[in-house]
Amino acid sequence: MGLSRKEPFLLLLGVSALLLGGSAGSSSHSMRYVYTSVSEPGQQEPQFFHVAYVDDQEFVSYDAQARRVLPTAPWIRKVDKDDPQYWERNSQYVWNWEQNFRVDLGTLSGYYNQSGGSHTLQKMYGCELRGDGSKGGYRQFAYDGRDYISFDKETLTYTAADVPAQNTKRKWEADLATIQYRKAYLEEICIEWLQRYLDYGKESLLRTEVPEVKVTRKEDYDDMETLICRVGGFYPKEIDITWTKDGEVWTQDVFHGLVSPNSDGTYYTWRSVTVDPKERERYKCHVEHDGLPNPVDVAWEEPDSNLGIIIGCVVGVLLLIGVMAGIYFKKRQDGYKAAAASDQGSNSSGTGTAVPI
Predict the structure, then answer these.
(1) Which conformational region is residue 259 in: left (phi greater than 0), alpha (psi within -120 to 50 degrees), or beta?
(2) Structural domains in the chain (count)
């Protein structure tokens, strides 16, 4: 598998002096790059895609037809001043991987003894700067939607997911210089670029949005009920939500949803707990987030009664109907009187023959 070449350094010498001194805020921040190549029957060349993210915000993508890496977030244009060759260098780098992937798809088909069909090769790598100052990094490949091989930067080895991947493992582990570079990239270069990007995009990437917290409930079939803590509209993504009972963390019968993005770039999630309705008041949803000056504890509250409003509306409608009915009948009576007077006036003799109805 032809992926053993070194990745070109995407960092100019001395750039670390320009970067932030440490992690901004107490939240974690991450960066990841994703490459995907798809071969379909009847296609002369595989389709190729590349996109990169900081904290789930896309900032560049690749136009395979133009062979160019393009900005997708306004703040990344700030790199033009600091690094004029940024777009040209990265465009060439991604194009090289597009060529590599084209060869690799054929190699992998041979490893798996495949002929024809649709196949997908993916590469994803990135790094994380955690709130406590620690760092993380990863590099992994997948083939046809399944794990293929991943890099362990601590042991400087590759983990093969199956027998065919052992072929790649042997090739890559024989190149010690590249392995050392992979480790340096994930632990140093990637982190430095992440810090630079956080500085460029600090207005959006380092902002805080206060979470909205609401507790609802629903009855269960077994005389129990579920309290649901819904938390939404918050940024950054990192949030701590727990259920407490009498002020102590409660984990029994607790379920949670994924932290998912909203269309405006904020996030939402939920936590639920199954409780005895008689003990409902003892439970609270505890939320900690960078957007909150202090943690909040929210309990379920009885909704305001709408009975008075409903009664008032009904009375108002009835009064309106009464008034309209009175006006209607008065007009009918006036019409009857006018009609009677008109009939007498039209009979000039006063002795006309009665006309059957």
Answers:
(1) beta
(2) 2
Question: Does 168 share its domain with 227?
Answer: no
Phi, psi (deg, nearest 5) at residue 64: -65, -30
Query: Which positions ≥6 away from 220 have C-beta within 8 Å?
Result: 226, 274
Encode 165-195: b = buried (16+ Cβ within 10 Å), e = exposed. bebbbeebeeeeebbeebbebbeebbbbbbb
Distance (Å, whole) CA 106 – CA 104 = 5
Q: What are phi and psi of 252, to 5 degrees?
A: -75, 130
Predicted local distance difference test score (pLDDT) of residue 150: 98
The whole-number pLDDT of residue 287 equals 98
> How many of the other CB atoms lie within 10 Å of CB of 278?
8
3-state secondary structure of 182: helix
- pLDDT 10s digits, 226-251: 999 999 999 999 999 999 999 999 99
Q: Quick check: is 238 in a domain?
A: yes
CATH number of the domain encompassing residue 28: 3.30.500.10
The strand pairing partners of 268, in sequence order, are: 232, 260
97 and 159, same structural domain?
yes
Sheet containing 296-298: order of strands:
248-250, 240-245, 283-288, 296-298
For 102, the token pair is 């084209």
What confidence tens digit (pLDDT) does each residue in 91-118 have?
999 999 999 999 999 999 999 999 989 9
Indicate the pTM of the whole model: 0.74
Asked whether residue 174 carries a pLDDT value surpassing 80, the answer given is yes
